[in-house]
Amino acid sequence: MVLMIAYDVLVLYGALVVWACLLTVGFRRRNFWPFLGFGTLIMLALNVGYFVKGPPDAIAFFIGIYDVFDNLGLERTEGAPALAQCVDNACTVWGDRFVYHPSWGVAFHDRFLNGPQHRTNLLYAHIFFNSIAFVLLHFQLWKPGVGADRARHRLVGRVTFGATTIGTFVGIRLASEHGAVSEYGGRLAEFGFYSMSAFVFGTAVMSAVKARTGDLVSHRKWAIRYAGAMWGAFWIFRVMLVVTGPLLRNYESVSLLLSIWLSAPLGILVAESFRKRRISP
Predict the structure, then answer these.
(1) Most buried of the four, 5, 122, 254, 255, by CB within 10 Å?
(2) CA 235, 236, 237 angle in degrees (round to 5)?
(3) pTM, 2 dp
(4) Which residues are registered as beta bridge partners of 101?
């Protein structure tokens, strides 16, 4: 039995503590750009890991983030309906320290460890294009297209919209397989990811439409809502799992389904609240 210490997970926890401090500073100064920038850097580090280590190892790291929380208060060999074991305990970076993992994570790992290559290629495309869109949307909000910057803003906007379109529809293709994965929640998960895609792509489309019609005030409103949807789909999704995972581990897939269905609209609501309060950005 090897009880490993996942130092890479601990480093991430440290980065998240720094990020939380930046959020606190943001509320005090009413300026969230440092928080947004650092969150984007963490997102990139997590996503680059899929290309450097490959999906199975990157997913094992991802599961390792939640193993600590989902096993709180449980004995090492004590399970729960929303927890499962994986072959040779290969789906975590903690060695034998944790033998039960979120069941959605075990399924996620198995689907890319033993799945067809085209599924992995779709995941790479989804991550790559969504990462580009995530970075560029912040640049667009930071540098509005006024005066001499208008042409540059229009060009970057088109690239951002193109990346969002590809990333979203590749995600929809991946989600179309989720109906058969009971650990995700089956059809509820599949249509939940369709809903998430609709929130992300719908706000992006509205932002583009308003730009085309010359309504720049509404264009920025929808751009902020689009940013909120993207932040919700990535970060609120993951933060919710930290909280709901241990609280709902007696109900398989409920924690994941809540993240799937609620993260993007919650992100939009948060962004809209900040926009109405005229808090930067």
Answers:
(1) 255
(2) 85
(3) 0.93
(4) 84
